[in-house]
Write a structure and sequence with these properties.
Helix content is 30%, strand content 34%. It is of the alpha+beta class and 301 residues long. The protein has two domains: 115 residues, TATA-Binding Protein, CATH 3.30.310; 154 residues, Multidrug-efflux Transporter 1 Regulator Bmrr, Chain A. The strands form two sheets. An eight-stranded antiparallel beta sheet has the order 6-11-13-12-8-9-7-10. A five-stranded antiparallel beta sheet has the order 1-5-4-3-2. This is GyrI-like domain-containing protein. InterPro entries: GyrI-like, Reg_factor_effector_dom_sf.
Length: 301
């Protein structure tokens, strides 16, 4: 009986030591949302820019883990975001929160009362949830599945930008490339498109070619910034994206989720084909883009 009591006491003491001094967070919030992990990741990074943060939000080893430090009047809170995909279009989010300067006292109070720390944490996470809900209501992604990516000869300009700046890079170069081609009576062969050549998913940087498909001929302008190449058709996963082209990369993540779920090896170099003119007056949900994610070729075939 005495040994059992001692053992039980040791378990209690060990648990208290872990809870008060070793556990790396003070409070946990969980929620489920109807979108993919990549969309949550990008939304967190944009939302982070609206907060009084100590430093920009950091992505850890993968897009599923992020850490941020938010400054409030009397304290600094560390938020550790863990995103767990449930299906192609749903995710579970776990947020572990710590008051960096008042962690011990919060751990003592949290089990017994609804503290200001808990209320502030819930309000902050709820603010993000509302922000995310608003964002995912502004676009639509339809997964088509395996398809053949079209082959096109293109006039293009290479661009380096962040994912969020992608559409800005297109707009900056659109008039130049289209007018230069029109001035020489070049014949267009489809809507504008981009070809991603490098995608760093840790820092969200891109290298891509902004392209106009053209008919190859002697009419094409030479001696300008415009370059030419053929984008060859290949097997790919395809999605239809409806929404503002600034956030069309949300479809990239949806296709990656689809590939992971179905055991398909892909090349993370998306192709986007834009069928709508942003200046046409159409509502953004009526803008259309085809998104292709190339499937890795089986060299043994």
């Amino acid at each position: 009986m005495k040994k059992a009591l001692i053992g039980f006491s040791l378990i209690i003491i060990s648990g208290l030591i872990w809870y008060l001094f070793i556990k790396s967070y003070d409070y946990t919030i969980r929620f489920t949302t109807d979108t993919n992990a990549g969309t949550i990741n990008q939304s967190l990074k944009l939302w982070d820019q609206t907060l009084d943060t100590i430093e920009s939000i950091k992505q850890n080893e993968s897009l599923y883990r992020l850490t941020q430090k938010v400054r409030f009047v009397d304290s600094i809170h560390r938020y550790q975001w863990k995103i767990n995909p449930l299906t192609d279009s749903t995710s579970r989010v776990v947020v572990n929160i710590k008051d960096v300067q008042h962690s011990l006292i919060n751990k003592v109070k949290v089990p017994f009362s609804d503290t200001n720390f808990e209320k502030r944490s819930r309000k902050t996470v709820f603010d993000f949830m509302e922000n995310l809900k608003d964002h995912i209501g502004k676009f639509k992604i339809s997964i088509i599945g395996e398809a053949e990516m079209p082959s096109k000869y293109v006039a293009y300009i290479p661009i380096k930008a962040t994912q969020f700046q992608k559409a800005g890079g297109m707009m900056k170069n659109d008039s130049y490339i289209s007018q230069t081609l029109l001035n020489t009576n070049a014949e267009f062969d489809g809507p504008p498109m981009i070809e991603i050549t490098k995608w760093n998913r840790k820092n969200d940087s891109l290298e891509y070619n902004f392209c106009y498909p053209v008919i190859r001929s002697d009419q094409l302008p030479m001696g300008t910034e415009i370059q030419y190449k053929r984008i060859f058709g290949k097997k790919a996963l395809k999605a239809i994206y409806n929404g503002n082209y600034i956030t069309s990369d949300r479809a990239w993540y949806a296709l990656i989720n689809y590939a992971n779920t179905n055991g398909i090896e892909i090349e993370p170099k998306p192709i986007e084909i834009f069928f709508s003119n942003p200046h046409s007056g159409l509502g953004e949900l009526n803008w259309k883009a085809e998104i292709y994610l190339p499937i890795k070729e089986d060299l043994n075939e």
